[in-house]
Description:
This protein is mostly helical. Helix content is 49%, strand content 5%.
Amino acid sequence: MKRTRGGGDEEAPRQNGSAGRRKGNQQQADGDDGDDGDCAIGPPDLQDEENDPGLRREIRSKYRDLINSVTQNREDMLSPSNNKLTEVLQEAVKLFKDVRQPREAALDAHLLVVATDLGNEKASQLFTEGTTFDPTAFSEHLLSFMGLNRLEDDEDEQQNGSAVDGYLPQDAWHRVARRAEGCFRTAPSFHYMMGSFHAEPPPPKQRIERQRKAPSKEAKRIMPTQLKKMEDSHQEATEKEVERILGYLKSYYQDDPTSPISYYEFVIDPKSFSRTVENIFHMSFLIRDGLARMYLDNDKLPCIAPVEEGEVDAGGSYSRKQCIVSISPKIWKELIDAFDIRDTMIQPPNTQNE
């Protein structure tokens, strides 16, 4: 579909898709506004340009043409009188304004690398006034500019290639400085009439250290009285419960010393899981303090027995092994069924007196 713009005779080229419809609407709007001039390009137009595959392919094709031009005409561009490299860079700058996608940016970077290598090689082939740079000749010109006075007696040594002797006037380097300062945009140095001003840093402030009070016995951390009483009461209750369980263990062992006491049958309470955990906890104190011992019977099941006085001396050199006992409600029920436990061997404290 073709539309005329601004009532003129020129026709806009036909475009497909949303881009054509947007541009057609834009041209029709221009025709309604009359001769108000060019309209500004809005964000939708920029988005259409970014998504236009034809425009993207055209930009990439132009970048490839520039890269091929630099590669194929490399020898011609190395000539000092050839300005083709400058034209290529100017064209690349114009194309870069329309770069929107990574592929186009990659081509631009590739062109820049190729042009940089070519420019570096071209710069290395430049000559100064038709001749290459000679460090020796430059030094001679510099010494002459500085006013070197050569000694007449050393003319033969100079002809034989020896070092050139002489002396420089006192303002030799000042001449070079005055000549070179015109090449740099630097502010002139400022000198104080009465010498340079040496600013001394302020004296450091003396740090006043606070006197620390010597720690005393009263300053030590003291546990609150109420908490301490609770801890003492819990400790006494634990000790009493351990002694009570030891009494049960000795009583069962004395009734039948030849029959081993099963560890699980002794500590498990089939009516209370929490009581079972407490019995295992208190039993660990008896084993730790050497008041009871654990061993495996013929069926490799743990058994427990009290340690008689004198059987093991305090601090004896018998080997002790530690183990961790874990139990859960599921395991607790399985042990009750496996050992057919109907009643507890350790009665709770509240039923002991009944």
